[in-house]
Q: What sequence folds into this?
């Protein structure tokens, strides 16, 4: 029993620290894209910036995981302070709209799509950015 209580306390502490590690400012911007050619492959990747709302490291993990789950996305890195997701993807496999919709499906609003209320409500308390 003591091990269970100790484990629960440690998990709660880690979760609390992750949720409070971010800033609470909001930002937005339109998605921007540019085309890059991968060296030696002739394969053209697009780089895009997509505004995505969130507040903490848990948000960062969820947003990046949702973006990377879309076939054709090679990298996804969310900037907590700027509320921007930096993406590289193959435009022959996907597009910014598909990536935006995947992120909204896990509860986060983007510049292009709004998460449905039930999905947003299911986010951890530290991830709730709507007023």
A:
């Amino acid at each position: 029993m003591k091990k269970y209580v100790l484990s629960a306390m440690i998990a709660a502490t880690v979760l609390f620290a992750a949720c409070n590690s971010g800033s609470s400012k909001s930002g937005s911007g339109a998605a921007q894209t540019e085309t890059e050619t991968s060296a030696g492959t002739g394969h053209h990747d697009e780089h895009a910036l997509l505004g995505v709302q969130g507040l903490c490291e848990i948000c960062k993990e969820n947003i990046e995981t949702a973006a990377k789950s879309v076939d054709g996305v090679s990298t996804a890195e969310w900037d907590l302070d700027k509320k921007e997701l930096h993406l590289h993807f193959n435009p022959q496999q996907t597009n910014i709209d598909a990536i935006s919709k995947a992120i909204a499906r896990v509860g986060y609003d983007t510049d292009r799509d709004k998460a449905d209320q039930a999905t947003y409500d299911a986010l951890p308390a530290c991830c709730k950015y709507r007023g």
Observations:
- Residues 37 and 44 are 4 Å apart (CA to CA).
- The radius of gyration is 17 Å.
- Confidence is low (pLDDT under 50) at residues 4-9, 11-18, 20-29, 36-40.
- The chain has one domain: 2-127.
